[in-house]
Amino acid sequence: MWTAEQLRPRLEGRVVTLEPIEQGHVEGLRAAAADERAWTWMTTRDTEAWIAAALAATEMHHFVVVREGEVIGSTSYLNVFPEHLRLEIGNTWNTPSAWGTGANTDAKYLLLRHAFETLGARRVEFKTDAKNERARAALAAIPSVFEGIHRKHMIVRDGERRDSAWYAVIEDDWPDVKAALERRISTGR
Fold first, then answer.
1. What is the pLDDT of residues 179-189, one digit of tens each?
2. Which CATH code fits 4-186?
3. CB 78 within 8 A of CB 88
4. Cα–Cα dist 105/139, whole Å
């Protein structure tokens, strides 16, 4: 069984640091979320409700993404099933000024490395809106394996139906994925 402490460590990377979300991050999250483009594909566009839910969450394990001392976004472990040695990385957003800086790559690397090497996960999943081409390209670049579209998977953003694209990395993939992510991080991509 994975404990909340195991699922919410502070993780330091080359580009970003992931810190478990806490009240002291609220102003930084508000500032990072000020550009509405960060929220285009989130399941809600209500930043205040999202922050309150993230602080209160017990089933989702939220992190803030910090670069050079500034909060630039958030990411999470969710859909955690320790009995099956699997979890999901998602609920990820970054302020648009962080796009293309390697911040998301480093954050994914930190979470994947922790999942496989510390928690002993066998499978890490990712889901995104099937229409979110930016996220789908980022997931393919990890590289994670595209596993299909789940049609009418979720109701989001005031009743909109979402088809979800599913991706995964399994423990067999991890050595190659780790090497690919380390190469990308070292070149700043």
1. 999 999 998 77
2. 3.40.630.30
3. yes
4. 10
